[in-house]
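Journal club prep — side note

Before the paper discussion, L.F. wants everyone to see what a predicted structure for a comparable chain looks like in token form. Sequence:
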Amino acid sequence: MKRILTTLIATLFAATAYAAPETYMIEPSHSMPRFEYSHFGYSIQLSRFDKISGSITLDRAKKKGSVDVTIDAKSVNTGSALFNEHIQAADFFDTEMFPVITYKSDKVKFDGDKVVSVEGDLTVKGITKPVTLTVNSFLCMPHPMVKKEACGVTATTRIKRSDFDMSKHVPYVGDEVTLTLPVEAIKQ
């Protein structure tokens, strides 16, 4: 009888632990947000940001979650030092006045055990707009190197530069921008 009661209590605590929200901190060396746009119709240009931080909280039992991401706008990397300076100017990111880009959400959508989308607010140049990220891949499992649970996600969305006061050279340089957020995060 004692053994059954002990097993029952242990099972109850294990179920309660699983039901609790879990927080994952973004691992910056494997998380590089990128953006792409049409350059005069000649090509699709791809650039990225090298510095990102934040957290993801998941409550898998309740099918809820939240996301809080901060991107260092000054870490923009176009592949050209000269263009990095140009794109940080007031006509584009205006990094002197607005050094960070943020995405915040408390609306994580699940399909079964998988996250499929995130509805939140993107703030660029002090302008906040609702943005839904479509999750293209999602996986949580023990990380073989750090020996903790980790989650990886790749999410995409499309926005318009002009919605964030960055319309210089539209329509020649495309107004529509595809954002891709490949993120890996480690459980705390």
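L.F.'s comment for the group: The longest helix spans residues 2-19. Keep this in mind when we get to the figures.
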